[in-house]
Design goal:
Elements: H1 3-13, E1 18-22, E2 25-28, H2 29-45, E3 53-57, H3 62-73, E4 77-80, H4 87-97, E5 101-104, H5 112-118, E6 124-127, E7 139-142, H6 143-148, H7 167-176, E8 182-187, E9 197-201, H8 202-216, E10 223-226, H9 233-245, E11 248-251, H10 258-267, E12 272-275, H11 277-286, E13 299-302, H12 309-318, E14 323-329, E15 336-340, E16 351-355, E17 360-364, E18 377-382, E19 389-390, H13 394-400, E20 401-402, E21 405-414, E22 420-425, E23 429-432, E24 435-438, H14 439-446, E25 452-462, E26 466-475, H15 483-491, E27 502-505, H16 519-525
């Protein structure tokens, strides 16, 4: 079984179900399969070698799904590209992956001179609209001409016999035999140094998709509002889980206007909402989120960084009848590693939960041996979800993969019921005056202050301490405070050496398009 088979099977069982809704556009599973097969037929005509890389530089849309599954069907490797990057970063990803095809939107034509000048491997360009000037050195094609040009596809692809009652069972069995061959390269944000290309196989992604479907109890009746970009592994997980089950992806790329997102959720009667911590904080602090009932909404999922316990409690109190899944993962783990069952959330606040089906977690000490219960160490993971490695970066790969275990770089502990808790990140441990301080602990403390909407804590150079603690803070609308008041608040709850030396009140925190706070930029701004 490969990734394209997820779409194939759902189209056979749920041909008339809506697969994607994007503003006023809709496409059902039969139509999505047909258009994917047409693009795949065109890609086959390019006579690329098996495993050739195809860059996808496209905002969330129906076309993105068509491109992703067409690449998979043609036995090529998808390289999703963050469309918020500058030309240099896009150029790095295309050059590093040696992509031969780029599927993109004409709106990114401003980046082409840089991309095309330095990527000798790139030979084919597929765009949504005509370009102002077609690059002479590349073959070019238009997305709508490929899909609407009457390219013949194999009729058998739409008419295979299948026992509809056994589809989940078949998928589970077949996933165990999914090939451990490269399916996609997801580049990390590259917050430090160059981006790393995480190599994920069909087995990695399929096994993790099925495990996620299992604990979220997703069915063909589920629909999710998609505000996370598909190039981001969390967004990709939404894509795969809902296509697997015959559910519906409701795309809305307008989170800059959060009330519009809430309106879309009500209009399309979604059953799920998935976001990163900043999404929830914005909705809870600055919108009518808490006053809306969302009668058809079944669950929330949160990942993409730790959400402060205080924010979790607010979400529970605001929506006591909804299922809330606090999750943990990494791109290198396809991505999901653990989840906290909603029924245990109240008494396990702060936990990332238990391993997802098929995944094993342990807490390792310096020598790699498992730490006793309650003691902290590095969280390490094994299972069919663990990446193949880093593309073209064997030295980086050796640092995180050891004997089948993925070393996450996160510090954690396990309680007596087998629930895991993140206590900090190796790279976010601040060494202030000889003391090791977790930025996460301080952030969670500050967010207990009712005046605080968002906070980011990080280390800055200091002549006396070597490294000092700084907090960048966003206040809730209508509230006032200053560094002295917040520092006194921290002193009442933290040891003196954990109290931030520097506190800055800011209008907003810089974020990546995924919603994660860009602490690298914050540090640079503080130099």
């Amino acid at each position: 079984m490969k990734l394209f088979d997820i779409l194939q099977k759902s189209a056979e069982v749920f041909p008339d179900h809506q697969a994607v809704i994007h503003n006023e556009r809709k496409i059902n599973y039969r139509e999505l399969l047909i258009e994917t097969s047409r693009l795949s037929k065109y890609l086959d005509s390019l006579k690329l070698s098996v495993g050739a890389r195809v860059g996808i530089l496209y905002e969330n849309s129906i076309e993105y799904l068509i491109a992703f599954f067409a690449v998979c069907k043609s036995n090529l490797v998808a390289v999703p590209i963050d469309n918020s990057l500058n030309a240099e970063r896009m150029n790095f990803i295309l050059a590093d992956s040696q992509a031969e095809v780029l599927i993109t939107q004409a709106k990114y034509e401003r980046h082409f001179p840089k991309i095309l000048r330095e990527n000798l491997s790139l030979r084919h360009l597929i765009t949504d609209k005509p370009l102002k000037q077609n690059p002479a050195e590349l073959s070019t094609a238009k997305f709508h001409e490929i899909l609407g040009g009457g390219i013949d596809i194999d009729g058998a692809i739409l008419n295979r016999n299948i026992d509809r009652n056994q589809i989940q069972y078949d998928l589970q069995i077949e996933s165990e035999a999914a090939p451990h061959e490269l399916a996609a390269i997801f580049y990390t944000s590259g917050s430090t140094g160059s981006p790393k290309g995480v190599m994920l196989s069909h087995r990695n992604l399929i096994s993790n998709t099925i495990a996620t479907v299992e604990y979220l109890k997703l069915t063909s009746h589920d629909s999710v509002i998609v505000i996370l970009p598909f190039y981001y592994i969390y967004g990709n997980s939404l894509l795969l889980t809902h296509i697997l089950t015959g559910g519906t992806l409701v795309i809305d790329n307008r989170f800059l206007y959060p009330e519009v997102i809430l309106d879309t959720m009500e209009k399309e009667i979604v059953t799920g909402f998935s976001g990163v911590p900043s999404n929830f904080m914005i909705l809870l602090n600055n919108t009518t989120f808490a006053s809306r009932k969302f009668e058809n909404l079944r669950y929330f999922t949160q990942a993409g960084g730790a959400m402060a316990p205080e924010v979790v409690r607010r979400l529970i109190n605001t929506f006591p009848q909804k299922e809330i899944y606090i999750m943990y993962g990494q791109t290198e783990a396809s991505p999901r590693v653990s989840y906290c069952p909603p029924e245990r959330l109240n008494d396990k606040i702060g936990a990332i939960g238990i391993p997802v089906p098929g995944v094993t977690i342990k807490i390792a000490g310096e020598n790699g041996r498992e730490m006793p219960m309650g003691e902290s160490g590095e969280l390490v993971v094994s299972g069919p979800n663990v990446m193949m490695g880093y593309w073209n970066q064997p030295d980086e790969e050796k640092q995180v993969l050891h004997d089948g275990w993925l070393y996450t770089g996160d510090l954690a502990r396990k309680d007596d019921e087998g629930y895991f808790y993140i206590v900090g990140r190796k790279k976010e441990i601040i060494k202030a005056g000889g003391n090791r301080v977790s930025a996460k602990e301080i952030e969670e403390c500050i967010l207990e202050n009712e005046k605080i909407a968002e906070v980011a804590v990080f280390g800055v150079k200091d002549d006396i301490l070597g490294e000092a603690i700084k907090a960048a803070i966003v206040l809730k609308n209508g509230f006032k405070s200053d560094g002295k008041e917040i520092r006194n608040f921290c002193k009442s709850r933290l040891a003196d050496y954990k109290v931030p030396k520097y506190i800055e009140i800011v209008d907003s925190l810089p974020k990546y398009q995924s919603g994660k706070v860009n602490k690298v930029l914050l540090k640079e701004m503080s130099q």
